[in-house]
Design goal:
By secondary structure, this protein is mainly α. The chain is built from 10 helices and 2 strands, in the order αααααααβαααβ. The chain is about 55% helix and about 0% strand. A two-stranded antiparallel ribbon has the order 1-2.
């Protein structure tokens, strides 16, 4: 059962509160490439990544077909920013997507879901919006801009919603794991870890709701490169320019 009691301000949230741009910019990425970073708008780096060109297939199921890769491989494209800034903006991109998906589902599916799925939706909507807020706060002026979305009707009925939620949550877990070895700042690593574990809890609950294994990859999760994650998002056509 999903616990719907949410603390107002947790110890983990304080980890993000204490992050400064200096913590995020351990490799001097902002100072080295300020002019380049200022030119990188959200729409710009999505275009470079090729996101938003192919229609959704099978209620988001394409997101669950990615192959495993080695840890510390496949950092985000430089268009997201350099070093830890790029990794956090990559994470923010995924959190924007998830938060928008659940916000829209909350509006469309109120009173139309079974009790368990309704509890899941209530909790993850709060969590994903909190993730967006925390990442934006950590990145400050370097935070990527929120894009526009079209969820292809997946937020209008219980079946497509649950299938897509499972795909998004499991992909989020693999995406965070794939960047663990690329993060340079210990503070950033710790803060990102507080999100990754919540994404894993979301994934296990929606997996079980859908009648699937709570650990689909067995006792060890598989990391995905940023390229694999972006390719999966591209196929959904959820992000539109």
């Amino acid at each position: 059962m999903v616990n719907t009691t949410r603390p107002t301000h947790t110890k983990e949230q304080h980890m993000f509160d204490e992050l400064t741009l200096a913590d995020v910019d351990r490799d001097g990425a902002v100072r080295e490439s300020a002019e380049e970073a200022m030119a990188d708008t959200r729409l710009g780096f999505l275009k470079k990544a090729g996101v938003g060109t192919v229609a959704l297939a099978g209620g988001g199921a394409v997101l669950s077909t990615l192959a495993p890769t080695a840890l510390a491989a496949g950092a985000p494209p430089r268009s997201f920013g350099r070093g830890d800034i790029g990794i956090l903006n990559f994470a923010l991109t995924l959190e924007y997507l998830e938060a928008a998906f659940y916000n829209e589902a909350t509006r469309n599916l109120s009173g139309k879901l079974d009790a368990r799925t309704a509890r899941f939706l209530k909790v993850v909507t709060v969590d994903e919006n909190a993730h967006v807020k925390a990442l934006k706060q950590a990145l400050g002026r370097k935070a990527a801009k929120k894009p526009r979305f079209n969820f292809q009707g997946t937020t209008k009925a219980a079946g497509p919603f649950k299938a897509t939620a499972e795909a998004l949550e499991n992909t989020g877990v693999h995406a965070y794991l794939g960047q663990v070895g690329n993060i340079k700042s210990g503070k950033v690593l710790g803060a990102a870890g507080t999100i990754a574990t919540i994404e894993a809890r979301h994934a296990s609950v929606i997996n079980e709701i859908n009648g699937h294994s709570i650990t689909p990859d067995g006792p060890f999760d598989k990391p995905f490169t940023a390229g694999q994650v972006l390719a999966a998002v591209k196929k959904t056509k959820f992000i539109v320019g």
